[in-house]
Amino acid sequence: MVRMKAGFNGLKGKEISLISIVLMCATIILWSWEKTPGLTAFLPPQTPLQLSSDHLASSSSVKVLPAPDPHIHVTEHESSMPKKKIADEVEEQDLDFTSQTISAQSSSGESMGESDTGTTSDTEQILSNVPDEEEKHERILEAGKSHGVQISSSLTTSEAKSNEAKGKKNSKQKKPDLIMNTPLKSSSIIGKENWNNATENKACNYAKGKWVPDNNRPLYSGFDCKQWLSGMWACRLMQRTDFAYEKLRWQPKDCQMEEFEGSKFLRRMQDKTLAFVGDSLGRQQYQSLMCMLTGGKETNDVEDVGKEYGLVVAEGSARPSGWAYRFKNTNSTILYYWSASLCDVEPIDVNNPNTDYAMHLDRPPAFLRQFLHRFNVVVLNTGHHWNRGKLNANRWVMHVGGRPNTDRKIAVIWAAKNLTIRSVVSWVDSQLPKYPGLKVFFRTISPRHFFGGEWNTGGSCDNTKPMSVGKEILEEESSDQVAASAVKGTRVKLLDITSLSQLRDEGHISRYSLTAKPGVQDCLHWCLPGVPDTWNELLFAQI
Question: What is the pLDDT of residues 299-358, one digit of tens each?
Fold first, then answer.
């Protein structure tokens, strides 16, 4: 009996041990199932994220592509170019990206007229001249090199796998990719209590960030700022009926931008002079700033001091080559000088009314050389006049070293533009030690948004709905590589506005110009109030 009881107890002990082993094995299996990624292959595939119709709205040509390689390998005339990352979904027309959004320097066009005092326009649209094949090639390369914009993609796992193959097929295309991004949290919106000392944040890259709605915009009324704002750019005085584009504010990603106040700007510029030198986009920035400083209201506190700078209507001219106004209370002078190419341009034969003009690629404008010592802040820009049509229409003849250029490599439009930008930046940088209080900015190119053609072939920018909210500029480097490389290593600062403006295709004059011809739209210049106001906010934050 004792032996049988001992056997029974032994059997019972074995059963308990077996049960324990089974439980331990089951626990290990379940734990492994949760922790081992390989086991998820046995699970059914996840359903891809579905977007609402609001997110997928207007264009049937919208495509989601994987992000391309961070660099594009180009010919010996180009260096590898870091492309711009933009987060979230982007509406993209079925057009070649480089030729549509930033090909103005390689396009051709004629200027649109404008007749307001101090606000005449010489729109950078183009006269068509067919270049030879070599020039076409170089110009296409330059457009991509200067302004490529990368829009990186963040997808669900299943979408990423399905798009990987598509990415290889589309890797040669220069169209932006799309990324989904969460909306900006309210806690990340600038608060007034954090605006103080924002200008001291020297590490801030103001070009990184996103557009956010702001009911405190615009900073002035497009109805009221008639003293400074050209009627050609005042969309409130046109037939346009939607003005949502006025209600957006640029929110830098890693820092906070000081809220613009006209009185604070003028105090900062007390007894100082700010000069804009560039093309008609530079004039838009000048007009924008004048409206921002006055709040768009008529004022008697401003006097015309153009004569001090030789800015008077020359004999045979319809307008002066610029404007200069001084705010009496603070003795602050704001001026604009028209220099579309940033070259020194002079008549070859002063006695011949039909003379050609020497376009000195390696010589800064005479106005800049003459008055630089009187300036405290200078903003330079060029870009949209650099095409064969403009050169021919203006009878500009390239000169280098004081003589007509004979170097075929320099004669290529993009090479001539690069030489000019580097020359003017180098010259200004050489002058800065003489004037310790002088700050010089080179503003990057303002993008155009002609879709479906050029300005004279049915190209349009009919979108009126802001599509930029939530899209985020992430890349550290500017998409205007020419300007960025020119200022690198110098004391000239980059005012980088290209990619943030690229998101704002709804902000152009479009078809609403009072003098527009049928079928002709202005997708180069901006409605004011509008995008150029932000350029001035970025400038304010850095002076």
Answer: 999 999 999 999 998 887 888 999 999 999 999 999 999 999 999 999 999 999 999 999
Using omega within 30 degrees of 0 as the cis cutoff, is the peptide bond preceding 347 cis? no
- Residue 400 falls inside a structural domain: yes
3-class secondary structure, 448: coil
Q: Are 322 and 309 in contact (CB under 8 A)?
A: yes
In a domain, 56, yes or no: no
Segment holding 9, helix H or strand E = helix 2-35
Q: Give dist(CA 246, CA 68) in Å, integer.
A: 33
Q: Is residue 346 part of a domain?
A: yes
Single-letter amino acid, residue 356: D
List strand residue ranges (DSSP E) for 315-418, in order.
322-327, 332-338, 344-347, 357-360, 377-380, 396-400, 403-404
Residue 503 domain flag: yes
Residue 328: DSSP 8-state: T
Q: pLDDT by residue (tens digit) across 400-457?
A: 999 999 999 999 999 999 999 999 999 999 999 999 999 999 999 999 999 888 877 7
For 526, the enclosing helix (H) or strand (E) is: strand 522-526
- Select from 105, 91, 37, 425 the least CA-distant residue to 279: 105
Per the structure, how many domains does the chain have?
1
Q: How far apart are CA 504 and CA 498, in angstroms?
A: 10
Range of the structural domain that residue 474 is part of: 186-542
Beta-strand relationship, 439-443 and 493-495: parallel
Q: Are 32 and 39 in contact (CB under 8 A)?
A: yes
Inter-CA distances, 440 with 282, 479, 490, 524, 534, Å = 14, 20, 10, 25, 18
Q: Which residue has the tokens 């260096």?
A: 79
Residue that wins the pLDDT comparison between 25 and 53: 25
